[in-house]
Backbone:
């Protein structure tokens, strides 16, 4: 990523990603060491980030506490990357090449309004970027090619996915009509797609049409093959696709359906042999059964079919394109990281059973691991509820020097907000008359919630709150509960000994 972004942008986005991994405040000195810059530069970066990326993320700064991402606003990092894509000359060049693959250096220097030296410096950086993805940036004319034309198409699909997401539509094609075509074709072929997958398939369809109109096709041998069931299914949509293309400057090639079938629905073709399909299908089936048994939670057939279909698609894709799809932003990385923090047993279980169906290079545990976790959590009905129920119930004791009724009021408030996570009691004795020996039982609780410091009690499990829980109190209590649950999940043996 570094070679495609200017140094300032790269430093800022790395700083944001660093903060995104932290649960709370970060010391300013540590932040400057991570960013490799001075305090003055870092503070300037924070001003820039809040001003130009502030619609999506916001960094708080305190002289005493340091810096942190605002928890209420910092959940749209992907949108920041979209903005970076649109501001980058390198990616402007990449996108424009999809439509203008016959142009020379002079054309692009004028089109991008840069000097010749800057243009070739950019080209040199892009050549290395493409090489690491098995692609090549040709110079006469400037265009992207690869050993398999579909490699380039998948690259562009990922580009548009990261640069535009699902809320923008950067093409001349009618979005609704394009989406309807993808939905109709996938339904006819019994391929289940959610909204995001439909959008990504639409990107791939339009990229394929554009590449064909630039004269960049799959091998002639593909066009010479006898039409199969998938081809014939797509042919039925010919009038619809012809009408769709007629509204643009593109033309519909004679055998467009063969290009589309072997690109968009590549999972039906890219297998070494029929036996491999059966073998991998069986391995994925065993993987899901093992995970289901390990966490003692059933997987219904409909959910299982969707998960298996997607994992088979990834495997087929990896058969002919053994590279990571992610360009700048992995939208599932943070998701998988949170799964690891919240449900480490589940994370370790999934990763362990994935190794049993591994191939080299490591598709499941390296290239697609984040995707697998997102897929399981999304498609496995009510799995999050089950995993939450497996987490430790945090033991809380409420202590109040305003009397038993006040303690019970705080208890009710805690139960109303955190009932599924906790078991809560109140301290029955008078706090004013209690002796130090009376407070010894507090040690056995995970959290002691008190409206005032308790004389002679200074253990780390105490949390001082207001007489009525404030917003800050609620946030601190939730963070305390989550921290205890995480520690219990990572060190279950200690919890067993303690209980």
Residues:
């Amino acid at each position: 990523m570094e070679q495609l972004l200017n140094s300032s942008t790269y430093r800022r986005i790395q700083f944001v990603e660093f903060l995104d991994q932290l649960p709370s405040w970060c010391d300013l000195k540590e932040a400057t060491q991570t960013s490799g810059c001075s305090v003055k530069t870092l503070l300037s970066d924070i001003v820039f980030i809040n001003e130009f990326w502030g619609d999506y993320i916001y960094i708080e700064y305190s002289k005493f506490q340091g810096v942190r991402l605002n928890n209420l606003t910092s959940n749209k990092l992907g949108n920041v990357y979209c903005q970076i894509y649109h501001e980058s000359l390198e990616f402007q060049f990449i996108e424009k090449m999809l439509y203008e693959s016959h142009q020379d250096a002079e054309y692009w220097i004028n089109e991008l309004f840069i000097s010749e030296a800057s243009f070739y410096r950019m080209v040199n950086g892009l050549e290395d970027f493409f090489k690491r993805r098995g692609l090549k940036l040709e110079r006469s004319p400037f265009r992207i090619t690869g050993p398999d034309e579909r490699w380039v198409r998948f690259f562009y699909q990922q580009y548009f996915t990261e640069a535009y997401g699902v809320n923008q539509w950067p093409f001349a094609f009618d979005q609704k009509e394009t989406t309807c075509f993808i939905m109709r074709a996938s339904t006819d072929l019994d391929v289940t797609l959610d909204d995001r997958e439909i959008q990504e398939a639409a990107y791939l369809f339009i990229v394929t049409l554009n590449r064909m109109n630039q004269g960049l096709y799959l091998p002639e041998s593909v066009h010479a093959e006898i039409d199969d069931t998938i081809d014939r299914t797509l042919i039925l949509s010919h009038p619809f696709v012809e009408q769709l293309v007629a509204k643009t400057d593109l033309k519909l090639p004679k055998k467009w359906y063969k290009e589309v079938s072997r690109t968009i629905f590549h999972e039906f073709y890219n297998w070494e042999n029929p036996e491999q399909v059966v073998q991998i299908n069986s391995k994925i089936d065993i993987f899901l059964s093992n995970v289901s048994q390990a966490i003692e939670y059933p997987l219904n057939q409909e959910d299982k079919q969707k998960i298996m279909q997607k994992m088979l698609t990834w495997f087929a894709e990896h058969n002919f394109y053994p590279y990571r799809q992610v360009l700048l932003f992995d939208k599932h990385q943070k998701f998988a990281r949170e799964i690891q923090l919240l449900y480490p047993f589940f994370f370790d279980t999934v990763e362990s059973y994935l190794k049993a169906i591994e191939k080299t290079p490591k598709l499941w545990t390296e290239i697609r691991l984040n995707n697998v976790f997102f897929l399981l959590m999304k498609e496995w009905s009510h799995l999050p509820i089950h995993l939450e129920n497996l987490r430790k119930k945090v033991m809380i004791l409420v202590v109040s020097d305003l009397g038993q009724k006040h303690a019970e009021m705080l208890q009710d408030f805690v139960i109303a907000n955190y009932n599924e996570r906790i078991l809560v009691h109140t301290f029955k004795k008078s706090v004013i008359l209690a002796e130090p020996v009376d407070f010894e039982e507090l040690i056995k609780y995970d959290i002691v919630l008190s409206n005032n410091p308790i004389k002679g009690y200074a253990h780390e499990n105490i949390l001082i709150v207001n007489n009525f829980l404030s917003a800050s109190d609620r946030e601190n209590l939730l963070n305390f509960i989550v921290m205890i649950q995480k520690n219990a999940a990572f060190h279950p043996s200690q919890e067993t000994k303690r209980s």
In short: Residues 262 and 268 are 8 Å apart (CA to CA). The mean pLDDT is 90. Residues 84-268 form one domain. The chain is about 60% helix and 5% strand.
